[in-house]
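Please, structure for the following, as tokens.
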Amino acid sequence: MRSERDRAKSYFDRVPSKWDAMYSHESPARYFFNRLMRRAVFDRYRLTFENCGSISGARVLDIGCGTGRYSLEFAVRGATRVVGIDFAPRMVDFSRRMAEQMNVADKCRFVCSDFSSFSFDDDFDIVLALGFFDYVQDPLIFLKKIFGLTNRVFLASFPHNGRLWRIQRKIRYHWVKGCPVYDYTIPQVEQLYRETSFPLQKIVPMRHGLFAVAVR
């Protein structure tokens, strides 16, 4: 029987173009639909750049980078070094192609690896884990490692759903698509940060989610 990690990896390795389409204006109808039905994704994007502090000259780590939309935007806005890491090979390949197309490949490094086992040779000014903890069974292990890599600000999102939405999400992802998903409450997130000594500055409620800002 495949592990939960393998099932999540398999799912994301199948959907890079579909996933990236949420941010693309190439299909106005699809973009409008995503803005309407997946508002939390766009709120998360806005909150990231409102709370990341100075980007110019920053070193950025994007954990679970997916198609690299955040990584690429940080590079465009003046970050000097951006590392995106994801365990889905096709997501990473997509990110590398986009970096070339956007002329920021010299600033970006996209790594295909499991974050928990990858060895980093430096720390980072800005660390992101957005849409990452949705698929993590034991977040404390990851947060402890992230704490050691962050020297300024850590931005993370956590799914936070009502009972009906949580049930349909579990059916849609866990049972139909074979991708395990998890959910969090505000007290659970606060406890996780206390256990890692991360200085949690604020939690911003979003539609179906929580946006957490920690500043060291």
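The domain at 4-215 is CATH 3.40.50.150 (Rossmann fold). The beta strands are 59-63, 81-86, 108-112, 124-129, 150-159, 200-206, 209-215.
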